Fold this protein.
Amino acid sequence: MHKASFHTLVIGSGAAGLACACRLHEGGIESVALLTEGLHCGTSINTGSDKQTYYKLGLSGETPDSPVLLARTLFEGGSADGDVAFAEAACSARAFLKLVELGVPFPRDRYGSYPGYRTDHDPVGRATSTGPYTSQAMCRAWQTELRRRQLQVLEGRRVVSLLVQEGRVLGARAWNEAEQSWEVYAAQNVVYAVGGPGALYRSSVYPQLQTGGIGPALRAGALAQSLPESQFGMASTKFRWNVSGSYMQVVPRMISRAADGLSDEREFLRDYLPDPGELYSLLFLKGYQWPFDVSRARSGSSQIDLWVYEETVLKGRRVFLDYRVEPSGFSLERLSAEALDYLKRSGIRSELHRTPLERLRQLNPAAIELYANNGIELAAEPLEIAVSFQHNNGGLSGNLWWESPALSHFFPIGEANGSHGVRRPGGSALNAGQVGALRAAEYIGARYRAEENLEPLFEEALKADAPRWEKFSAQSDAGWEDERRELQERMSRVAAHIRDEELLREAIPAAWGQLERIERRGGRLQSLINLDLALTQAVYLEAMLYQSVSGVGSRGSAQLRREGKILPEDEAFRGRVLESRYLGGRQSEHRWRPVRPLPSGESWFESAWADFEAGKIYQKENGTV
Ligand SMILES: Cc1cc2nc3c(=O)[nH]c(=O)nc-3n(C[C@H](O)[C@H](O)[C@H](O)COP(=O)(O)OP(=O)(O)OC[C@H]3O[C@@H](n4cnc5c(N)ncnc54)[C@H](O)[C@@H]3O)c2cc1C
């Protein structure tokens, strides 16, 4: 079996992992390796949206901003820790300006300031963007830096297990798909940047090349938090893309058809809301109220997501956006003042633009081109959509240096880190990924630089880990598609934006049963991914049920029902964080703890200077370093 050793192993090559590998090297750690399924894999390099947003500290205009104000916004989303929110805010400018220095073309004005716009859950306009592919531009810039630094990249590897002894991570085991063989890596530190669990749901807008990797960390005993908190919203299914922004602002005709996708076409929205003025004004709002949000589900724009869910999941029909024909009863003049004003200012005129497509061509021609480049002509065919899984706000726990509280020398960063809580401002995922990379690299450089002799511990960990995997990979991958479909369908049915306590309860034994079956059957790459997803599924479902039974109610992007009734939110839980841990077998444990408070943010310069010089900033809460 191939074996190699590095000072620090970074797993995952999205915007977060790439940034961390370069930052470690910049900080003087020479022996860094980036292990990944592929530089072309993951969410960051493959995804985007109408205007993909990067949320940062305000750096322009007259609106005052500061780390304290930004931290407050991040913290007030609920169930987010204050110390981490503060670090995300305090390091935001540094992380953003590094990207600027690396050449990411964030727009600036003639004086050199970076104007912002308002995104969801953002009180002041801190958002910026390079267009539809911001995270891809970030990856490209970091990849150039990675090459310049000549860092070692191990592609075509899938980590399936973390090697652990005495509460410390010592390395990882990976499957090499090209060689069809196992490899092990010993490391003083492991940075875990594996992204979100993209393949967990059938309706998902994650790219196909992001399946997720939280399973091995759960199996190794890492602590997780806020697992039930995710974002769902409407997205096209053939080519996965959020239908936000101008795709909704031009008010397309929304239709449903029978399961064959062809027959029995209906404009179903008017069954739910007959008044066309009211209905199409709501549809317009979906442009910038993209995620399903329970606070907008009673009378606001998120009702549309509920109606689409009813058509697709409950009635088994298929829903499409048709840009070729006006929706029935549509007229510009019937829209709300807000929608009408926006469209008129954008040059839309009823006598000139007689279809949604003509309006889209006027508002954002690149939006039409984007689908054409992906084989879909909006002028020729309707676009199939579904309410889809888009982001996991929860994930693995980390302290204010992004180190796992349960596994030392293990740093979950990027989307794998569950720092966001209930609601996050749009774009804060990218900020958190860059800041986490910076913080983990700084801490490793400052505190975990010295090489320890870990060989005996590593060998012990390996001995305990090896037998299950040799047995597993002795089998073929046959039947993996059925297993994947089963778990994805289960998650989309019971654990998406509509959750019913009873259905969650029923799904859990089936999920554990599936995990055991996959473990028994064994297989190669796809079965290893299924094993990861199946464990993830079971622990997530348990966390969701625990949250429901605790009485949290509906919040964020998940509406909770019990015996058909929608449960209101108990806002007291916004002050607590749900922690989860896998215990082996069919056991997981979940508990609420109070959020860590927001620091005051006031530091007296002279004492901050002294603490910095003495390295006290790296001190742990119990005073140790
Ligand atoms: C459609 C869409 C639109 C979005 N829009 C925005 C937005 O506007 N603003 C915003 O802030 N966020 C947005 N997000 C979220 C954001 O893009 C992601 O959270 C972020 O890109 C994740 O970056 P990452 O580096 O953590 O992980 P990723 O970019 O997903 O990278 C994960 C890496 O880990 C590798 N990997 C995974 N498992 C393993 C394993 N077991 N072994 C080896 N390698 C592994 C993958 O191959 C990949 O290289 C959006 C997400 C989607 C899906």
Observations:
- The first strand starts at residue 2 and ends at 11.
